[in-house]
User: What shape does this take?
Amino acid sequence: MDAIIYKICTREDWRQAEKRGRYDGSPADRADGYIHFSTASQVSETARRHFAGMSDLVLIHVDAGALGGALRWEPSRGGDLFPHLYAPLPLSAVRSKERFILGSAPSWLT
Assistant: This one.
């Protein structure tokens, strides 16, 4: 599986995570009982489907190997396997973050 997985979230949600020292997920994540992540090839479609019309987003790069057994790869849209984290995201697993602008994903994602 991918060594780096990605989470799109609002800048404000990420600021709160940095204050707490962990990311507990978006309201949708908490309702589902796990934090939704995407692989590099899934980020653009995830953004289109779930973040349309939103601004002030960040893309969090996470070391999947640092998440241990709480990370599961489960089938979702079209049978693709998506990474789901059944625990808060520890900031120690975050490798980097960048501003994410819908419709202009970094070239390395395409």
Remarks:
- Residues 4-103 form a domain with the ADP-ribosylation fold fold (CATH 3.20.170.20).
- Strands lie at 4-10, 22-23, 35-36, 57-63, 71-75, 81-85, 89-90, 94-100.
- The chain has a mean pLDDT of 91.
- The helical segments are 11-20, 27-32, 43-50.
